[in-house]
Every structure is written in C-alpha cells, then in structure tokens.
Amino acid sequence: MHGPTPRQPGVDPAAPPHDPWAERSAAPRDPRSVRLADALATHTPRDEREARSLAGILAALARLDRPFDEAAGPVHVTASALVLGPRGVLLHRHKRLGRWLQPGGHVDADEEPAAAARREATEETGIIIEGPVDGAPIIHVDVHPGGRGHTHLDVRYRFTAADVDPAPPPGESPEVAWFGWEEASAVADPGLATALIAVRPRAA
Questions:
Q1: How many CB atoms lie within 10 A of CB 110?
Q2: Which of 2, 10, 132, 198 is deepest in the core (most CB within 10 A)?
Q3: Beta partners for 100?
Q4: Domains of the chain: which residue ranges?
Q5: Domain 30-199: which topology?
C-alpha cells in the first residue's frame, strides 16, 4: 500500500499547475504584432486559401513572442511586394524553388513588414521600387512552406516601378522579368494567382 505522495520542497500542493504558456503570453509583445494584427483585422480574403492564411497569421501573432524573427522559430512573418509597372507585374524565378514569384523575404529587426517588402524587392530586382510604406495597405496574405522546415506567414503589399529593365545584383536570382497579366497568371502558383487578381488593374 502506497503512502501519500511526498511534497516537493517549496511547492504548494494547492497551487494550480505550472503553465508555461501563461508566462509566454505575459512576455512583452512586439508592437509590430499589434499594428499588423490591427491592419489584418480589416482585410477581406478573396478565397478559402487566403481565409485560412489570414486566420493562421492572426493566431500566430497572438501566440508568438517574436513572430518577425527568423531565428526565433520555424514559423515567422515574411513580406513580399507585388510590383506593378507599364509592362505589367515584376517577378523573379526563385533560386531554390525554381518558380516565378513576387520578390520578398524576411523582416529585419525593428523593420515594418511593408518596408521589408519594398527593400527586398529593390535588392532582388535592382529596380527602385516606389510607394509609401507608412500605412501601405495589405493586398494579400498567404501561409506556405518556406524551406528548411519553416513556415512563412507572408504579408503582401502593392508597389510600383518605372518602365526600366531589371538589373539583379550578384547573389540574387539572375532571372527577373516583367510579365504581362496573362503571362503572369499562367506561371503563378495558387498563392500568387489570387494576389495577381487583387492587384490587376481593371482595364488590363
């Protein structure tokens, strides 16, 4: 017959069980999480995939302490740019995935997602990307695998650029091109296809 369970020193048996998530939620939140969640609260998804992505991003922003930090965990926010110009939309062939995608990437420390999207687009295409980042509207969101076991919570913004040829620098994908709208739709994956619909001018 077993006796009573010995008490652990310093532990009150009447206290509730330790909840590490309570400590996590009490940690200071990145203020960018609050701003992004507020912006996403007014975003209307265009299809079921985007609706699932939106719900997933909002849940992650509420759960993760450092959702913009690639080093903090496998699930993090990324930002990308749908760059429009007189010739259509600017895409690059991703070096690892081999697919034509919009430029974008990870968000630097203390950088707003819209600023990251514009910076990455400039770095990857060699073209000066135009458009404000303060208050830039979100035009699409998508959650997808990002490689190395990561999940990217991608937030997408609309920018413009002049009618100039891309000049990607060394180290970036050498294949960057302007696509007409029908051409872009033909090479787009499902996540990009809906984003193209969101930014395509009505007369195009």
A1: 10
A2: 198
A3: 93
A4: 30-199
A5: Nucleoside Triphosphate Pyrophosphohydrolase (3.90.79)
Q: Distance (Å, rounded) from C-alpha 74 to C-alpha 154?
A: 13
62: left (phi over 0), alpha (psi -120 to 50) or beta: alpha
CB atoms within 10 A of CB 140: 26
Query: What is the C-alpha separation between 31 and 22, in angstroms, rounded?
Result: 19
Instruction: In whole angstroms, give the CA distance from residue 27 to residue 20.
Output: 11
Using the structure block, give the residue that is written with the tokens 């974008």: 104
**Phi, psi values for residue 96, rounded to 5°:** -90, -40
Strand pairing category for 138-147 and 176-179: unpaired
- Using H for helix, E for strand and C for coil, what is the string for the chain? CCCCCCCCCCCCCCCCCCCHHHHHHHCCCCHHHHHHHHHHCCCCCCCHHHHHHHHHHHHHHHHCCCCCCHHHCCEEEEEEEEEEECCEEEEEECCCCCCEECCEEECCCCCCHHHHHHHHHHHHHCCCCECCCCCCCEEEEEEEEEECCEEEEEEEEEEECCCCCCCCCCCCCCCEEEECHHHHHHHCCHHHHHHHHHHCCCCC
